[in-house]
Amino acid sequence: MKRLETERLTLREFRIEDIDDFYDYAKLETVGPNAGWLPHPNKEHSVKILEIFIKNDEVWAIELKSENKVIGSIGLHHRSLLDYGMIYEVGYVLSTKYEKQGFMSEALKRVLDFCFDEMGLSKLFVGHFLENKKSERLIKKFPFKYLKDMDYESRDYGLIVSKIYMMKKNEYINWRKVI
Ligand SMILES: CC(C)(COP(=O)(O)OP(=O)(O)OC[C@H]1O[C@@H](n2cnc3c(N)ncnc32)[C@H](O)[C@@H]1OP(=O)(O)O)[C@@H](O)C(=O)NCCC(=O)NCCS
């Protein structure tokens, strides 16, 4: 992943040395289940997932500059969606201790800049499970447009009804001009 900077965060590739920081949040009941995966039962499991992240190169580690610590992740996943064909989905998780300080808004804005300014994407989508109000509030801070509720295939829980949103490049560029 290309290294990206914000005021408080560095978005960079995961490294195997991130294992302790990764397991610290991957084991929490408040993190994985909201994103469709079970809390990690042990560090060995986290090592396997971390190796997949490193191999697939779809996910940025979110490193908090002030603590030199990985506090979450944000990724771009190429998926098939409804009538849109293959399209990138943005997904994210944050360690619970660091919530409500604007960190994911800051990371997501940087990733959206990258998607539309550098990757040349024309649109992307995002989704959250119906009851995930935290993610809904984050999404609503950006110019995503609600598309529909649909069954979404989660990694560990099967199909879960989710709210799906889309953003087009021109909508983002126009929004960015006025913030
Ligand atoms: C969803 C998540 C990424 C939000 O990250 P965050 O860094 O706390 O979000 P931000 O601080 O940038 O703020 C986003 C909005 O959510 C609100 N929010 C964050 N945590 C909240 C909480 N515990 N309760 C209510 N609202 C909350 C913020 O207040 C903010 O809204 P506002 O600025 O309009 O007040 C984070 O809670 C998380 O990773 N949760 C667990 C995993 C998950 O749900 N991933 C998303 C799967 S779709």
Provide the CATH topology.
Aminopeptidase
What strand line-up does the widest sheet have?
Answer: 1-2-3-4-5
Supply the CATH architecture. 3-Layer(aba) Sandwich
Can you tell me the CATH class?
Alpha Beta
Rg over C-alpha atoms, rounded to the nearest angstrom = 16 Å
| Count of individual helical segments | 6
Instruction: Give the low-confidence spans.
Output: none
Write out the distinct hetero groups bound to the structure: coenzyme A
Mean pLDDT: 97
Largest sheet: 5 strands, antiparallel
Q: What is the count of β-strands?
A: 8
- Please indicate the count of domains: 1
Describe this structure in words.
It is a single chain. The chain is globular, with a radius of gyration of 16 Å. It is built from six helices and eight strands. With 179 residues, the protein is α+β, with helices and mostly antiparallel strands. It has one domain (4-178): Aminopeptidase. It starts with a strand and ends with a helix. The model has no long low-confidence stretch (mean pLDDT 97). Coenzyme A (COA) binds next to helix 2, strand 5, helix 4 and helix 5.
Topology record:
Blueprint: E1 4-5, E2 9-13, H1 19-26, H2 32-35, H3 43-56, E3 59-64, E4 69-81, E5 85-94, H4 103-119, E6 123-129, H5 133-140, E7 145-154, E8 158-168, H6 169-178
Antiparallel strand pairs: 1-2, 2-3, 3-4, 4-5, 6-8, 7-8
Helix pairs in contact: 1-3
What features would you highlight for this structure?
binds coenzyme A, Aminopeptidase, alpha+beta, 179 residues, three-stranded antiparallel beta sheet, 34% helix, 8 strands, five-stranded antiparallel beta sheet
